[in-house]
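Running this now, will post back.
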Amino acid sequence: MIGRLNHVAIAVPDLAAATAQYKDTLGAEVSPPLPQPEHGVTVVFVHLPNTKIELLEPLGEGSPIASFLQRSPAGGIHHLCYEVADILQARDRLKAAGARVLGNGEPKIGAHGKPVLFLHPKDFNGALVELEQA
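Update: finished.
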């Protein structure tokens, strides 16, 4: 059901500093910051030959990334994103298997302009999983 790894998301306390680290120190191609108010984050994508790294900074006090950074002030891996061909079919299959979909269970539009869902980390070995329709 899942396809390729789309990205690994890293929560960061300072998006500009993290962007500079990937761009200047590691020599990576980095996208401009993209505010995602419906998700409470600003994101930057680090483009790699085989996948992407998504750097996440809180956007507003209600951001889920703000609470993550309270627990891990230096930042850290936040989630893994896998592609799926049909997000509604994937959601229904996962729910039937007992997996918990976060939020109201309906996809939201993600930073790539495609529908996304998040799955409860307790159902996936402690890892928050994002599904993105490819």
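The mean pLDDT is 96. More later if anyone needs it.
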